[in-house]
Amino acid sequence: MTSEGGTEAVKLWGGRFDASTDPIMEKFNASISYDKAMWKQDIQGSIAYAKSLQKANLLTDEESQKITDGLEVVKSEWASQSFVIQPGDEDIHTANERRLKEIVGDVGGKVHTGRSRNDQVAVDMKLWLLEHIVQLAPHVTKLLEVLVERADREKSILMPGYTHLQRAQPIRWSHWLLSHVWPIVTDLKRLRSLYSRINVCPLGSGALAGNPFNIDRENLAQELGFDGVTKNSLHAVSDRDFVVEYMFWASLVSSHLSRMAEDLILFSTSEFGFVKLSDAYATGSSLMPQKKNPDSLELIRGKAGTMTGNLCGFLMVLKGLPSTYNKDLQEDKVKMFETACTIMGILQVAAGTVATLKVNEDVCRNALSEEMLATDVAYYLVKKGMAFRSAHGKAGEVVKLSEELGCALSQLTLDQLTKISPLFEDDVSSVWNYEHSVEQYKATGGTALTSVNTQIAEAQEFLQSFRLTQEE
Ligand code: ARG
After folding, report:
1. Is the overall model pTM greater than 0.90, yes or no?
2. Least crowded by CB within 10 Å, which of 22, 134, 238, 393?
3. If residue 275 lies in a helix (H) or strand (E), which one and from where to where?
């Protein structure tokens, strides 16, 4: 089919083509099925660009008004879901321009003066991502609020702390909760700094060489709410670091939540029994009636893998690309949208699961066993003047003796203890107390009540002062 009368005639780039595109290629090449998500940003960019063209005397006031009005109509069609995608609409940029021309006639063809889909797609994606991040941030803060609020409410609950998944030392349940707060606090700070790196406008870079019509790019960027403009047009049209960084951010957050989820999955087993998930965030088995499965947490753990897969996959797309725009870059949107949708889900389900689970205080406390106080025995001797290395050895002998006699540490008599070290006295009885044990760790960051309270206060202060708005 020749371009005359063929679909190529209506294609933005159809002029130099004789033959039509193979339908398989047409489908393969099209991105409209997913990049239509950026319809609003695409129109926003075009309206601002039309204004710039007007200021540069490439559009009369009347033409600019006509284009803007036409774009507003296109916008309302998308908003009311009445926009009809036509078979030749390759992507959102093509679709909007085609529709604009149908509405306003030939003048619609002027909006693309000096612009390319290469700088257009980059600006659309940045606008979309900035908006998404502003919507995402409250979901991160919500999760933090849930964790901090629980930590504040349940400070009296003691549980075993683990290393190598072996019982190690007694800790406060709140201390465990807060251990998952701080990585996410840093994630939020990262999100804010990421926001400012995205906030640089690539529009006005053309296909690759720049804009030949003296567009005021600084003014255009300001119109669109950006902080500044990109410095090099070749770089601007091919830069997808903002997508990579965002996907890294999402991978890291999901990896943090995956680790928390893993703890909670273990804590919810019958073997541990520390927590019980709410029915709202668990599912049953189609075969075994007794089962209550922690699917919410397992999906968080699983999706963390998918997030990282997206990141690595897209890095592979970028690696080795020659300079400036290449169609490989179209792969960016699939990954970016999927990541955005998944991380939203992860954050909301994590907040809901943590907010609604029940912690079983008695089971947590009963899981504490006296051998977990062996370190405290060593610290006792240290306080009596013994070097820690020797104290560690003596405490080891105490544990060994209790194992040999088949009794708990607290059941050893003072006589038996003083045979191991004459430094043991009556006050050793104070060591056999879990509350006393956790209260030793008063230094900043420890599990003592004062330290936990400090963490809560600092986390609350952070949450009160943290804002991520469009005006960043
Ligand atoms: N749909 C394309 C993308 O998402 C838009 C840019 C097309 N540019 C081009 N030179 N073919 O990357």
Report:
1. yes
2. 22
3. strand 275-276
